[in-house]
Prior knowledge:
Number of strands: 20
Low-confidence stretches: none
Distance between the termini: 31 Å
Structural class: alpha+beta
Mean pLDDT: 91
Shape: elongated
Amino acid sequence: MILDRNGEVLANNAPTYSLEVIPExxxxxxxxxxxxxxxxxxxxxxxxxxxxLRQRHKGFESIPLKxxxxxxxxxxxxxxxxxFPGVSIQGRLxxxxxxxxFTSHVVGYVGRINEQxxxxxxxxxxxxxxxxGKTGIERTYEEQLHGKTGYEExxxxxxxxxxxxxxxxxAESGYNLQLSxxxxxxxxxxxALDKYDGAIVAMEPATGRVLVLAxxxxxxxxxxxxxxxxxxxxxxxxxxxxxxxxxxxRGHYPPGSTVKPFMGLAGLEIGGVLPSERVSCPGFYQxxxxxxxxxxxxxxxxxxxxMPNAITQSCDVYFYELAHRLGIDRMHDFLGLFGFGQKSGxxxxxxxxxxxxxxxxxxxxxxxxxxxxxxxxAGIGQGYVQVTPIQLARAVSILANRGKRVTPRLVDKLASTxxxxxxxxxxxxxxAEFIKVRDSSWxxxxxxxxxxxxxxxxxxxxxxxxxxxxxxxxxxxxxxxTVRQDEEYKDMHVADKLKDHAWFIAFAPxxxxxxVIVVLAEHGGHGGSVAxxxxxxxxxxxxxxxx
Length: 547
């Protein structure tokens, strides 16, 4: 089984009944299948799957024709049993996912073994099952969950028929897996996204244990277990909101202003910037000798701002100037220390790395020179910069830890059926590496993030009332398309699918971080008003149980 941190069942094996056929005991197999199709309303997909399974088995082996028989189907077959030699009803265990779409992208699902998998599998080890982990935890930990097949050693004749039992090797059950995930918190996060597609990732910064990994929309993984029909699969595959796509580990998005705390650290550590150094923000920025204006999100500008104010109020012009001073290659190297442009290492299949650009990257991939304006745009998390929510959660964890690197991890423990427990053997040896940053730099940036939530000028001040602890956060609004110089975004009639993505990153309590959270609401518009309240729901629920 797969369990959450509190023992809630996320995947188990439910008893069911299946209609099974032994081909060599079934005279007139084709006619029998046609009669069963009419009697039990079988679909063409059921017949195709049966023939596919038949090719992998001997004629005297029992092959499932339909799984999950209803009581009505069993009754209808029972009264016609004498008409179908070689056909019977058998009890089996089938994988079941009680939380459905809430955990579909984390737990994943099992499905029938296909031809490609047969080429690489130890077929003897899978003679006892037709199923294998396809996605999520089910796939990553297939070997541990599967166990070892039991078998009898038999003396057979030249046709392969058993004559005499020689010996028996008992089966060994697979391990139960206990995740660090809190399924109640996962449900809260999924429901907090409300009408928005997107992702929420939460983790313990000290350990890397993942508390929430929600990608919305999800799907019902139970549909895949015994074989999804073509019409249902095509509906999922072609849906505009892409329910099969795990946004939390595969979705690439511009991070927008959520990069500004990391840019601030880069300025303090490698850019020679002082926290008190001020930049004038008239509402736009111009490179020396150029007419093009790089706009600030506030049309009237922020006036004269230092670094703490620039983070708190999310002043774009300050970070344009900082990016121009640092240059793209130094930005690339420093933010790479926090995992930008790299996989997080979470124990799920299919994770992608995101992208943080450099001169060399553009020269190799685009065969083009790097332009100064592209550096400015990267400085506010736009342009070529792309992150995944899990990657950003790892970066925020390192920030909350003041430099301690951790790897996100979902599986906490493995437990045998005998009751013995083992720590996850795949867990990384975290905490050995630290990013060397001066305490004063950490203090400056983290205090500015606290002010994002708790000061009158903070972009997420709306979530502060009623909090009994401090939250360090940063909002982000990431453009989906480029606005021309002569246009103003807020005056444009923009379709929902072209609205900005809303981000919020945070950790709490700020003085002793117990939870890190990253919220992405696709086309949500504003991080402060849309994404930050979602994060507060999750933070409050989690901390209410441990503070």
